[in-house]
């Protein structure tokens, strides 16, 4: 019983001493390590969590070496972060390249597969950017930290009343109707359309086989937008970090 109480107070003491130290080291590492979490910083956070967790949970682990380990990890991260800033080659080795996933309103199937992102992932990220229609997008890029950057087409940039002296038109929303060759009949039904209409629209845009369609959406004006699985005629801008 006495040993149990002793271990309990030891664990509590470690919590109250290690958390302020961890907070200090995290602040020392900088805002970037918290807000963006590139791959290297993510690994550092995971390692710190493992070290702190082991120290708190196991009273047999010596406390002072754990504190030294935390400080050393923080200093190591700071050194690498400064090295990445001064040497761009090192920065490229320790992170991902930005990847263009949409160009001229078209999904780039090969790029999505390469970074293992699904259409649903990108559509959600677009909605978080207040983009509900893929046709509004000139270029969309998955950044090294996993965030999505969106460049809207010029005509889709927000217009103020002062700019045009007119009321801005209502934004449009598009509905996914084909994803990776699979048609969603329920969406057609909700829009009072049918499969025959869809097939006619596909043929009109030069698509004879629905299986060739990577993504297709339709807006309130019944305008169909298509991204093929193999978009070979799209020029992708050379985005680098």
Automatic annotation (TrEMBL):
Principal subcellular localization: membrane
Record's keyword terms, sorted: Cell membrane, Membrane, Transmembrane, Transmembrane helix
Topology relative to the membrane: Multi-pass membrane protein
Protein localization: Cell membrane
Record-linked InterPro entries: DUF421 (IPR007353), UPF0702_alpha/beta_dom_sf (IPR023090)
A Pfam family it matches: DUF421
GO annotation, cellular component aspect: plasma membrane
The YetF C-terminal domain, residue ranges: 86-218
Transmembrane residue ranges: 12-30, 37-57, 63-81
Family: Belongs to the UPF0702 family.
Designated name of the protein: DUF421 domain-containing protein
